[in-house]
Design goal:
mainly alpha
């Protein structure tokens, strides 16, 4: 089961990330931010695995910061406007 989730993550992660960037670039930041924030679930999992297995803490810290920034972007576009 773990291997299947890992394989699915490796497919879903770039699809959601690129789709989020694409929507943001096409002047739909509200939807792009939500999709990008959704991709962060997979980024956090993957970066945590990289930290535990290979000591790659930098990508994990970057994922946390990116998640916080995207979260505030979603709050800004969906709830404050």
């Amino acid at each position: 089961m773990q291997r299947n989730f890992d394989k699915a993550t490796q497919v879903i992660l770039p699809i959601l990330t690129v789709f989020g960037f694409l929507l943001t670039g096409m002047k739909m930041p509200q939807i792009g931010l939500v999709i990008s924030l959704t991709s962060q679930i997979f980024w956090m999992y993957t970066s945590w695995q990289a930290w535990k297995k290979a000591g790659q803490i930098g990508i994990f810290i970057t994922s946390i910061i990116t998640t916080v920034v995207l979260f505030f972007g979603v709050i800004n576009y969906w709830f404050i406007r």
